[in-house]
Amino acid sequence: MQRFFAKKLCDGNTIKHNQMMTVDDGKIHSIESAQFPGDAIQLSGLVAPGLIDVQVNGGGGVLFNNQPNLDTLITMSRAHQQYGSTAIMPTLITDDLVTMQLAADAVASAIAQNVKGIIGIHFEGPHLSQPKKGIHPTQHIRQISPEEMALFTRKDLGVVCVTLAPENVPVEIIQELVQANVKVCLGHSNASDTQTFAALQAGAQGFTHLFNAMSPLQSREAGMVGAALFDASSYCGLIVDHEHVDMTSCKLAIKCKTHSRIMLVTDAMSHVGSEQIELQFAGMQISRKDNKLTIEGGRLAGSALDMASAVRNCIVDLQCTIQEAIYMASSTPATFLGLQQQKGYLAPGCDADWVVFTDQYYVNATYIAGEQVSAQTIPNIQNN
Q1: Run of H or E residues at 266
Q2: Residue bearing the bigger pLDDT, 331 or 382
Q3: pLDDT, tens only, 22-56
Q4: Where does the pLDDT of residue 377 fall: very low under 50, low under 70, confident under 90, or very high at 90 and above?
Q5: Helices (DSSP H) in 233-321: which residue ranges?
Q6: pLDDT score of 376
Q7: Is 267 an active-site residue?
Q8: Contact 270, 63 (CB under 8 A)
């Protein structure tokens, strides 16, 4: 039995002081008020539930699409652990079927071997809208096939999330995916609000990077953005790097959806946790300048954001409370993924996954299953 003492702790809902956590076999056994006994491990800073990122394309200098193997997943997870992410959904950008199968096999291997931080896979495409494709390769955007359905419904991949454009996927297919416990997100789409509501009715649960690469809210057309903001039960990923979404739009989204339905995501490329500036992907060169990634012509190409920075941006720039920001980075994604009994909170029975923040909301240390996996690191380049 391990013992950890936190002078300040956010359990997912409230902030408490002078808390003793006991950990047994990677799970929290108890949390109770106490005075520091001297023989416990003292956690210096604000202790909060580990951050959960449902959209991670890469990290540590590697991109999942370019190297869809187990070593890449280990590198990605370790890179993001530096910034408080104790669980990530490795995300495959639109690609060919062979690459998709290799990515799935890598995730299955990571889960079978209990690789820390890997909890599933997010297929962002390939069943998207050409007009809203972003940097997704045109040649790989296609209709859904039986081979892809078989891939999405594998039972050895942990949590599976699929981003699709509802105007290009029949509602019957969305229903079939949902019945197979796939988390269906809507995005990279030019759908009308009617098409979007039909997909939600069929069981789609979320929206991928709200506002970005989707039909906008307009005076005579609500679009996918309008439907997402109006619908009370769905979840929305939000990239709070001040490059993808205007700050007022971020505040509007949180006001409409509340912190229990907005989940902070990074959409991180390989640059996070590395000194990388240039990245080759699908014949495109993605360049980093400060905290912005673009291809030739200035189009955004993923992000250089980390989850700790997303939390900090919400607190400092969006005037969210500490609890709200942490909730959107941990509890909300945990609930979206159906893991709220294990992750997203610090309570007896939950996984002993937590992050220790400094007073400025940088990361002092990250713990997974009660073991420290990362100590204080140099901030991501974007923060310099």
Answers
A1: none
A2: 331
A3: 999 999 999 999 988 788 999 999 999 999 999 99
A4: low
A5: 247-257, 307-316
A6: 66
A7: yes
A8: yes
Please give the backbone phi and psi of residue 206, each rounded to the nearest 5 degrees, phi first: -150, 180
Place of tokens 């299953």: 369
Q: Which domains does the chain possess?
A: 2-48+347-376 (2.30.40.10), 51-336 (3.20.20.140)
- Report the chain's terminal Cα–Cα distance, integer Å: 40
* Helix (H) or strand (E) run with residue 156 in it: none
pLDDT band at 362 (very low <50, low <70, confident <90, very high): very high
Alpha-carbon 353 to chain mean position: 16
This prediction's pTM: 0.96
CA distance 17 to 357: 15
> Cβ atoms within 10 A of the Cβ of 384, count?
8
**Closest among 373, 355, 363, 381 to 10, alpha carbons compared:** 355
Give residue 346's pLDDT. Answer: 98
- The string of DSSP letters for 89-115 reads EEEEES--HHHHHHHHHHHHHHHHTT-
Per the residue annotation, which of 95, 193, 231, 267 is the catalytic one? 267
Tens of pLDDT along 215-238? 999 999 999 999 999 999 999 999
Answer whether 50's CB lies under 8 Å from 330's CB.
Answer: yes
- 105's CB contacts (< 8 A; 6+ apart) are none
Q: Which of 154, 258, 245 is nearest to 208 (CA)?
A: 245
Question: What distance in Å separates the CA atoms of residue 368 and residue 66, rounded to the nearest whole number?
Answer: 27
